[in-house]
Every structure is written in C-alpha cells, then in structure tokens.
Specification:
The protein has 251 residues and is α+β, with helices and mostly antiparallel strands. The protein has four helices and 13 strands. 22% of the residues lie in helices and 26% in strands.
Length: 251
C-alpha cells in the first residue's frame, strides 16, 4: 500500500522540464539544435504609461556636436523623470508640442516622435523607454513578489527568473497570466514545458501582468527524498516481519 502511494505521488520528469520539443517526440535529455521564428511582444502603450524620451541630434554650432533633449520631470505627475500618457492618450514634449502615442508600440512611438523631430532638429534619433514597469509573480516560485522589469516584453522565463525560478511543486504546464492594460483585462494560460510557446506573442510578459504558478496536484520526489521514503518503508516491513516471527515463535 505504501509503495503504491509513493509511486502515485511521483510526477513524470517531462512535467518539470521547460521548452521541450513535443512535436517530434524527442527525449528531453537528448541534445539537439532547433531554430524557431521569434515572435514580437504585442506591447501597446496605454494611458498612464510613463515614458523616458530622449532625442539626440546634430548641433554643428556646439563643441559637443551631439546633443540630447527630453525627459522633463515637471511633465510627469508621478515624480519620475519621464512623460505620462494622459487619459486622452497624449503627451506634451517641449518644442514638439502634443503627440498622440496611445495604442502604439514602442517602435511605432519612436518613429512617430522622430517624424515630428525631423522638422525641428538636424539628423535626430529617438529612444523611448517605458518607466515604472512592474510584474507581480505569485504561487509556486522561490520568491513571490512584485518586480521591476527593464523593458516592455520580457519573456516568461526571464520573469520567473526574477522570482528565483519555479519551486519543486510548480505546475509548469498551466501557468496563469492576468493582464490588465488600460481598460482591458484578460486571463490566459501558458505551457512552459512546450517549445512552441516561444513562437507565441503570449511568451512575452508586459507591464502590470500578474503571473500565478499553481502547485502540482502531486509532488515530484527528488532522488534523495525517494531514498528516504523507501528506507522508511523497509524499516516498516522489517518491523512487520520481526513481529510475525516473534508471534510464530510464541505459538
């Protein structure tokens, strides 16, 4: 009975290994090279996003030649060196005026600001960075909590790394993500053991996402734990055998 309980409590190793090639039925321990088409994060700007915007341009009259402008702290109500997209989806940049950025990706926003800057600056370049980007990681991870991310569109594996990785009882086949961006809230699940996830836009975690790693229904025993369990079973069986022998001697 005890042996049956132990065997039923074990979880196949394939449930614990990330990014497996399940389509070709390869063993997860087999070394192979597989090239995948990388997807791009679908991270569009929404009202409330705080942006650091730097415009670098050529100034032939200056000794420094290149000058950088942007990121006025007074333009932001949160006290961060950046610009906040207001409820109308707009920001106001000195010299360039009001610019609509809501609904654009970072790349699209950079091109949009660049087109405005070309009318004022010589050979400008634009760099936009999302500020105040946080994700919340809960459940079966080593260090649950709220973490700052350096970009819009970190991979789910990077995000779990912020929390110290998954715990031994983590269910990697069904990781829940709650996404709130602007007025929209969506819930979806990710199978971290399946390599095809790398082709999916949902592979990327965006600001304000909540990641919940639920526990497995059955614990995966390590080799050392299994040894301890079987050692305990052996002691119990030995005790039963000794009791039976004593009873036989006394009868």
């Amino acid at each position: 009975m005890a042996i049956t309980v132990v065997l039923c409590s074990c979880v196949p190793n394939k449930k614990l290994v990330i990014a497996q090639d399940k389509t070709l039925k390869r063993s997860q321990d087999q070394v192979y090279e597989h090239q995948l088409v990388k997807s791009r994060p679908n991270c569009k700007l929404v009202s409330g996003d705080v942006l650091a915007i730097e415009i670098t341009y050529v100034d032939l009259l200056s000794d420094t030649y290149l000058k950088t402008v942007g990121s006025d702290p007074s333009a932001n109500t949160r006290g961060t060196d950046g610009y906040t997209i207001n409820d109308s989806g707009l920001i106001h940049l000195p010299m360039l005026g009001t610019i609509a950025l809501k609904g654009l990706t970072i790349d699209e926003a950079e091109r949009h600001v660049l087109n405005k800057a070309k009318g004022l600056y010589s050979q400008p370049s634009v760099k936009i960075t999302l500020l105040e980007t946080y994700v919340t990681i809960l459940g079966e991870v080593m260090r649950p909590g709220r973490y700052h991310t350096s970009k819009c569109g970190s991979s789910i594996y990077e995000v779990l790394g912020l929390a110290g990785g998954s715990a031994s009882m983590a269910d990697l086949e069904e990781v829940k993500v709650i996404r709130e961006r602007g007025d929209s809230t969506s819930v979806f699940f990710l199978d971290l053991t399946n390599e095809t996830l790398l082709n999916d836009q949902k592979y990327y975690i965006v600001p304000s996402d909540i990641v919940f790693v639920k526990p497995l229904k059955r614990k995966a025993y390590t080799f050392q734990e299994s040894q301890q369990v079987f050692r305990g079973i052996s002691i119990i069986l030995s005790g039963i055998g000794l009791t039976v022998a004593i009873l036989r001697l006394g009868s």
